[in-house]
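Friendly challenge for the regulars: who can give me the structure tokens for this chain first? No prize, just bragging rights.
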Amino acid sequence: MGNPFDDLKHEHEAIRFSLRVLEVMKDRAKAGTLDNVDALAMVDFLKEFADKCHHGKEEGILFPELEKAGIPNAGGPIGAMLHEHELGRGHIRDMETALRKK
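First reply, four minutes later:
Bragging rights claimed.
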């Protein structure tokens, strides 16, 4: 069994790669050549992999263990990461809403 921290790092790499893909998709959207099916597939990937799978591990396992070890949530790094997760969820919702309007 692998190191759970290595797994999270690899997942971060996959998420960073998906953000680079989103940059390309943004350029295609500006040029009017974005395929909504591809874009909605990316939204689904972000919802399932980045949020449910990856963030689920962080929020359900890692962050509670960090708190037990004395790392603060409110006003600390865990709270900041939770805030970033919420911002990401909002961006994904906004992307999905915009794509479904077309």
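DSSP finds three helices and no strands in the chain. The mean pLDDT is 94. Your move, everyone else.
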